[in-house]
Specification:
Helices cover 67% and strands 0% of the residues. With 87 residues, the protein is mainly α.
C-alpha cells in the first residue's frame, strides 16, 4: 500500500493507470504482481532495485503523450502547439 500511495513513484502511477480502467482491487493485485516480479529479479540476478520514476510512461512514448494532450485540449475547446525547447 505504501508503494501505491506514493504519488511520485512508478508503482503509484502504474496503480492509478490500472485503477482507472479496471478498478482499485484489480490494480492492487497488478501492483503486487509487479513487486513480486521485481523482487524475484533482484534476488535472482543480484542487482539493486531501480525505480523507473513517475514519468516513465510519458518518457516511454512521447508521440502518444502529445496525441493524448492534444485530444484532451481539443475536447475542452483549446488548441496546443508543441515547440522544442531551445537552450
Amino acid at each position: 500500500m505504501v508503494a501505491v500511495k506514493k504519488k511520485d513513484s512508478y508503482l503509484g502511477v502504474f496503480f492509478r493507470r490500472i485503477a482507472a480502467r479496471r478498478g482499485g482491487k484489480q490494480a492492487l493485485v497488478a501492483v503486487m504482481h509487479k513487486l513480486a516480479i521485481a523482487i524475484r529479479h533482484v534476488l535472482h540476478d543480484h542487482t539493486p532495485y531501480r525505480e523507473l520514476g513517475a514519468d516513465h510512461f510519458t518518457r516511454r512514448d512521447l508521440e502518444r503523450a502529445m496525441r493524448r494532450m492534444i485530444k484532451e485540449a481539443n475536447s475542452l475547446g483549446l488548441t496546443i502547439r508543441f515547440e522544442p525547447i531551445t537552450a
